[in-house]
Design a protein that fits this description.
The structure is a single chain. The protein is mainly α. It is 70% helix and 0% strand. It has one domain (15-149). The protein has helices at residues 15-49, 62-71, 74-93, 99-125, 130-138, 140-149. The termini are far apart.
Length: 159
């Protein structure tokens, strides 16, 4: 007499579960596309208010270059790009020695500081203060459209 017990589970192919997962993925993709379009159109309007062509909001990297041009100086955009390259290289080389982890963390901190400074300058260039900067950092989906579609006017590069 054999008392072997087999521990396994077999699940029938449940079409309802698969349909639910695929429909949830569809909703997430749809909402993401709507938010992406909203952000592009809002950034287009921000650029128009600042005297730049709106189509520059569509092109990746060039929209960030234009944003730095509007609120600060383009050399900081290139510093940001260089930091990103060093960040990726140091992350890749972290397995060799721990000094690259320190380099990675230093680049990450520098990028965060530069982005916060640029965001604050964007806020100031449209006549807003620190509270609006916090909103731009944490709820950019709400605050960028407020800049683009609201009554805020571009006041030039802040000091």
């Amino acid at each position: 007499m054999s008392y072997e017990t087999h521990y396994y589970a077999s699940y029938p192919a449940d079409g309802g579960l698969i349909a639910t997962i695929l429909s949830m993925m569809g909703v997430i993709i749809f909402v993401s596309m709507i938010l992406a379009i909203l952000m592009i159109v809002s950034l287009w309007r921000v650029f128009k208010k600042a005297g730049e062509e709106g189509w520059k909001a569509i092109i990746p990297f060039y929209n960030q270059y234009t944003l730095y041009k509007i609120v600060w100086d383009t050399k900081y955009f290139f510093v940001t790009l260089a930091l990103i390259v060093v960040l990726w290289l140091s992350l890749w080389l972290t397995s060799l020695t721990s000094i690259f982890m320190i380099l990675y963390l230093a680049c990450l901190l520098a990028l965060v500081v530069i982005q916060i400074k640029a965001t604050h300058k964007l806020s100031k260039s449209f006549g807003h203060g620190g509270g609006f900067t916090v909103g731009l950092i944490f709820l950019s989906v709400v605050f960028i459209p407020m800049l683009g579609f609201g009554t805020s006017q571009y006041q030039g590069k802040p000091d």
